[in-house]
Amino acid sequence: MPTAETTRDIAEQAAGWAARAAYGEMDDDDRLALEAWLSADRRHRGAYLRARAALCAMEEAVLEAPRETGAVNDNLSVDMAGRRRLGRGARALVAGAALAACAAGIVLIGPWHIPSSAIHQPDERRVALADGSVALLSADAQVSAYIDSTTRTVVLRSGQATFEVARDPDRPFVVRTGDVYAQATGTVYSVSKLGKAGGEVSVNEGTVLVWLQGERNRALSLRAGESVTLSPERAALAQPLPERSAPVASRATGELSFDNIPLSAAAKRFNAVNDRQIVVEDPVIAATPIVGLFSADDPESFARAAAAVSGARVTIRGDTIAIGM
Amino acid sequence: MDEVRDSNAVWVSREILPHEVSVRRWLVSRWGSRIDADDVIQECYCRIAMLASAEHIENGRAYFFRTAHSVVVDSARRAKVANGAVMTETEWWDVVDREPLPDRVAEDRQQLERVAGLLGMLSWTCRRVIELRRINGLSQRETARQLGVSEHVVENHVRRGLKRVLSALAEQDAATEAEERTRNADS
User: Fold this and answer.
1) Residue B28 to residues A75, A282, B141, B181: CA-CA distances in angstroms?
2) How far is B59 from chain A (nearest CA, A)?
3) What is the pLDDT along chain B (187 residues), one digit of tens a residue?
4) Which of B1, B10, B137 is opposite residue A21, by nearest beta carbon?
5) Same-domain pairing of A291 and A167
6) With an 8 Å Cβ cutoff, are B128 and A4 in contact?
7) Same domain for A160 and A242
8) Pair A186, A224 in one domain
9) Phi and psi dihedrals of A258, rounded to 5?
C-alpha cells in the first residue's frame, strides 16, 4: 500500500531529524534544512512530533530502568556495612547530633504532644549509598543512584532528599531532578523536585554547583545557606535566594524521630541503617510505644533508653543488641 | 531548541503515544477499510503539532480519540461520503464511555511491557548515550569522548534506536489490527 510506505518513509526521516536535533550537532545549515523539511509537507510536522515523543519515551525508559549497562550496576542500596566514609564536615555534624541526642536521650511513653516542626516526616528514610554518602529521603521521594569508579549520580524523580556527600574530589556527586543538576564533591545539600522538570536546591554546607540540562557552562555556584529554584520554563528568573527561614541542616544529621510507634517498628528503622541489629525478644515489650528523637547511628543508646522505660534489659551479643526480660 | 515545543514532545510521549494502539484499534473497528487508520493517526499528530501548547489538555487519551474522530468526520465531509458513516457527537461519547475498565488495565500492562521491550531495542551505546546526556548532563562532545567514539556515531546509535522503536510501534499496531479483524470476522 503506497500510503503505508510513505508513512514509514516519513517516520524514518523524522527519526533522523529528531536524533540529530537532540543528540547531534546542528549547524545553521542543518537548522535551515530541518525547517525546509518540516515545511515541505504538513505531515512532516506530525511525524516529527511523534518521533520526538518516541525519543522522550526512550529516554524515560532508560532513566527509569536500573542501570544495566556495563560495570556500573550499582543501584541505591542500604549499606549494611554501616561504616560510612563521611566528609569531615558531615562527620562533625553527625557527631554533634549524637551529642545532642544523648543529652536529651529520653524515651517517653504514651501519647505525647510534639510540635510538628520538631519531628521528621513520619516516613523519612535514611539510606547509605555505596560511596559512603548518605541520603535522607522524604516519604514521597523516589531516587536511583548510579555509582561507579568515575561518577556518582543520583536521580530524584519525586519528593525531596538531603545528601551528606562523602568527600571525593575525583568523583563529582551529581543529583539530577528533572532538568536541574546539582553537583558537589563533599557537602550537605537538599534537592526537591518541582513540577515536571524543575527543582529546588538548598545548601547546608560547602559549595554546590547547580545548572540546567545542557547549560553546565552557566552553572550557579551556591554556598552554605543559599538556595535556588530552577525550572526550564523559568530559567531566566533563576537567582540565588537568601537563607530560607527554616535551615534544613538538622535533616541531614542522622536522627530518627518516633512519634508514638511500637518499639518493634522503631527497632526496624534502626536496623535498616546500622549493621548492629536490635532484636526485641518479648512481644509485650515490642509493643511499647516510643516517642523521641534519637541519633540514627547509635542503636545501643536507643535500645538502653527503650529498655529503661519498658522495664526490660539489654544484652549485647556480638553485633546483636537484644532487648528482653 | 524551542522549549515550549520540547515540553510538548514530553507531553505527547506520556499522554498521546501510549494510546496510539487503542485509537488505531478503535478507528479500524469503527470504520474498517473506509478510512486509512495510518493517515488519520498521522493527521492527529499534525493537529497536535500545531497546538501552541498542550498544557490546557487534561486528558490526553480522550483528546486523542476526539481528534481522531474529528479527523474522520472532516475527511468524510470533504469526500462527501457522509451517508450514515459519520457518527454523531452522542454516539462518540458512548464509545468513550462504554470502553470497559478491564481493557484499560490490560492496556496499562501492555504499556509496561512495551517500555521493557523498548529498552531491549536499544543498543548498549544508545542507552549509554542517553544516560550520559540526560542523567549526567554531559554535552554531545563530552559524551562522545567518554564513549571513545565520534559525535557522528553517537547520533547514529540514537537514530537507529529511534527508528527501531517507531517501526516496532507501527508493527505492534498492525498486529493488533490483524487480531481485531480476525476477532470481528469470527463473531
Assistant:
1) 44, 66, 46, 8
2) 17
3) 444 556 788 888 888 888 887 888 888 888 788 888 888 998 999 999 888 777 677 778 888 888 898 888 877 776 654 444 444 444 444 444 444 444 555 555 566 566 667 778 888 889 889 988 887 788 888 888 888 888 888 899 999 999 988 887 776 555 554 554 555 554 4
4) B1
5) no
6) no
7) yes
8) yes
9) -125, 130
DSSP state of A24: S
Q: Which of B134, B149, B153 to mutate to test the interface with A (most CBs of A within 10 A)?
A: B134
User: Residue A175 and residue A218: Cα distance in Å, rounded?
Assistant: 17
For residue A42, the enclosing domain spans 2-64
Q: Are A189 and A204 in contact (CB under 8 A)?
A: yes
pLDDT in tens, B69-84: 888 887 777 665 444 4
Pick the residue from chain B with its C-alpha nearest to A233. Answer: B3
For each of the domains in chain B, give its residue range(s) and CATH number, in order of start. Answer: 1-99 (no CATH), 100-187 (1.10.10.10)
Query: Which of B6, B39, B155 is opposite residue A24, by nearest beta carbon?
Result: B155
A103 located within any domain:
no
Mutate to test the interface with A, among B130, B139, B143 (most CBs of A within 10 A): B130
Tens-digit pLDDT profile for residues A313-324: 889 988 899 998
Closest listed residue to residue A57, CA positions, set B179, B119, B113, B72:
B119
